Amino acid sequence: MDADATQRAVARVRSWPAERRRSSNLGLLEPAPLFDIEVASACNIVCAFCPRDEMVRPKTLMDDVTFGAVLNFLPENAVAMISGLGDALLHPRLEAMVGRLVGRGVSTCLITNGIRLTPSRQAALIAAGIAEIQVSVHGLNDDTVRQVVPLGANPKAVRVNLEQLATKRGPRVRINFVETPENAHARDQVRAWAENLGFRFFYRRQHTRGGTIGAARADAGCAGCGIFASVTFLSVEGDIMPCVNDVRGEGKLGNVRDFTWSDVLAWKRRVINEDRWFSACTDCDDDFRWVLLDQGGLDGP
């Protein structure tokens, strides 16, 4: 979905009556559940739009005991997205974790900044059964990227790694582009480069990350969130959170050791039915929360 289509989708959902938004949110609980699993809350770069400085959970790697508890918690039809607020390629046992998820029948995707996605890591992830790799690319040259990623950026390494990945058979690949005032001019260039490599391109506008980064756009005040219904975030400590951007942990339900998936579904239904959103939602202006409602889920109709 491009920038114009995204803004049209947001406008449509904002025009819906509250009951339609509520029923659409509830409908997103029905497909196979997607879990955002944070195996690393540490990162090797600093992005201008990342709220990690506000994060109260530790900046660390998920330990084996917690990962085992996550595996036990996941329902049979789960889908996993290894992401969170860190870069999972920092974890030395990432490939083993992917293998254990796949062994459980869990289709697994990795989201990374791509710097450590070397050919050897690519091969290991493919051997482990990774289904999809998503890489954040916010520009193709140093001058543009360093305005968005002021510390640790290495766009050349990312390009080389992805051009190598394009030669391999196996996982689907998607390029994620977050548009900011500093890199908006590079959007079409990144899209063309991605498509030339045979990769999908995903566009998203910079947003307030749960009200921690900048001020919300004027059109932010819309009840409902398709992300909450579609994705369940599990933190590096195994905590069940309403969203990866609840960096202060104010909406935490509890830990995977103490709850079942049925408990989580009941929690989500209560929040949606009672319209009791979280403090991190108040100033959130992420277009994607409404795009998901407009298109009826992560993959559209």
Which structural category fits the helices and strands?
A: alpha/beta
The biggest sheet amounts to: 9 strands, mixed
Shape: globular
Q: Tell me how many strands there are.
A: 9
What fraction, in percent, of the residue positions are helical? 25-40%
Number of helices: 12
Strand content: 5-15%
Overview of the molecule:
The structure is a single chain. The chain is about 35% helix and about 15% strand. It has about 300 residues and is an alpha/beta fold. Strands 6-5-4-3-2-1-7-8-9 form a nine-stranded mixed β-sheet.
What is the compact description of this entry?
By secondary structure, the protein is α/β, with parallel strands linked by helices. The chain has helices at 3-15, 18-27, 64-73, 94-103, 119-128, 142-148, 155-165, 187-196, 226-230, 261-274, 279-282, 288-295, and strands at residues 34-37, 79-82, 107-112, 132-136, 172-179, 200-205, 231-234, 239-241, 254-255.
Descriptors:
alpha/beta, 301 residues, 12 helices
Give the topology.
Elements: H1 3-15, H2 18-27, E1 34-37, H3 64-73, E2 79-82, H4 94-103, E3 107-112, H5 119-128, E4 132-136, H6 142-148, H7 155-165, E5 172-179, H8 187-196, E6 200-205, H9 226-230, E7 231-234, E8 239-241, E9 254-255, H10 261-274, H11 279-282, H12 288-295
Parallel strand pairs: 1-2, 1-7, 2-3, 3-4, 4-5, 5-6
Antiparallel strand pairs: 7-8, 8-9
